Amino acid sequence: MAATTVVKQQAGPRAAAGPARERRGRRPARLIALLFVLPALLLLGALVVYPVLFSVGRSFFDASGTRFVGGGNYAEIFRDPATLKAVRNTAIWVVVAPSLLTGLGLILAVLVEKVRWATAFKLLLFMPMAVSFLAAGIIFRLAYDEDPDKGVLNAAVVSVHDAFEGTSTYPTARGRTGLLTQDRDGSYRTTATPGEPVTLPMVGVLPKDLPAGARPAAPAPHQAGPDELRGVVYLDFTPGGGGTQGKVDRRESGLPGMRVEAVRDGKTVASTTSAADGSFRLTGLPGGSYTVKLPESNFAPPYQGVSWLGPALVTPAIIGAYLWIWTGFAMVLIGAGLATLPRDALEAARMDGANEWQIFRRITVPLLAPVLTVVFVTLVINVMKVFDLVYIIAPGPVQEDATVLATQMWLVSFGGGNDQGLGSALGVLLLLLVVPAMVFNVRRFRRSQR
């Protein structure tokens, strides 16, 4: 018993000294860890914490930075029409872009599983992620160019339109003044009665723009049936000069393919198309006076396509460029989640008679809900900060129609507004909008780690 007591007395101080020695051993390890973390903390403080605190403080001062205005800058955000438009456009971006990207990524991820060359397809869709926003903006600025000779999208639209609707042959042609009358809709007319010749002289067509099959103009016919109108549509211009205005010269060219109509009491009673030498013939006309008309469709300007970067479509056009860049990202992340789904559940559903749409809607989507949420929230955070695409793609005249909070913050602060107080308030507002999404993402990540 005495020996046991002695052993306990000797073990007591040693046991007490153990935790103290362990604590003393931890101090150098903590110091070393702090030394390694210190550079990162300094950079974080200099590049993140200090700018945030400075922006918060600056947002309470006026443009000069000398007069305290309190919440005046924040009130100005909701009074300035340009800033309100930026808030509205940002809301459109937040609602539309992440939803479309998540949906496209889900559909493509499911479809890619059934493609033989899945890896190559994923690589192809993911490649735009390697392109900087600056380069992507320049690419789409050119693609959206309104000139069909430069913009690839308008070139395709014009080709499809012309294939179905056709195009006028003489967009620059106009009637000879004093001989033909122009209507408000752009058509030209004259008056004639059956049996008399009709000449329709035109100008404004360059010889090089004449159709390949154009032939010298036919002389005005001297005889015509009592129920027909015969005449010629021709270019009233003699190469090298000479000739008489209003009369067909043998060196002048006919205008083939010109639509000619006979109109009476406001109704078209006959129509035809001029031949290679410009001659035409309208038959089956009762006696009386007729209006011989060249409809406005003969002179319609060529279809120029869609104004992609106009005020109405500039925001959807920029969102389209954003989709091109980020669709591969969404597809790859959702595809990774799809690869982890339990295949036994899918096979059991198929054995129970479920079709592929039912499996997709009732099994695949619910099981992928956590992945879809992460992708959606990540894209929301990214969309709120979009700047490069909007600034590069939107032309100057429509910059205000396409502006979002990030571009408006830059424009107000440095792009001519020179009001860094209001710009700082916009920056703080943008931070407050991003923080909830970031917190949600972090909490969800921690729950998944547990």
In the residues, how many domains can be counted? 2
Count the helices. How many? 14
What's the gyration radius in Å?
A: 38 Å
> Mind telling me the CATH class of the largest domain?
Mainly Alpha
**Principal-axes shape call:** elongated
Give average pLDDT, whole number: 86
> How much strand?
5-15%
The number of distinct β-strands equals 9
CATH topology of the largest domain: MetI-like fold
Order of helices and strands: HHHHHHEEEEEEEEEHHHHHHHH
The biggest beta sheet, please? Answer: 5 strands, antiparallel
Secondary-structure arrangement, i.e. CATH architecture of the largest domain: Orthogonal Bundle
Percent in helix: 40-55%
Q: Structural class, from secondary structure content?
A: alpha+beta
CATH homologous superfamily annotation of the largest domain: MetI-like
Low-confidence stretches: none
Spatial ordering of strands, largest sheet = 2-3-9-6-7
Distance between the termini: 50 Å
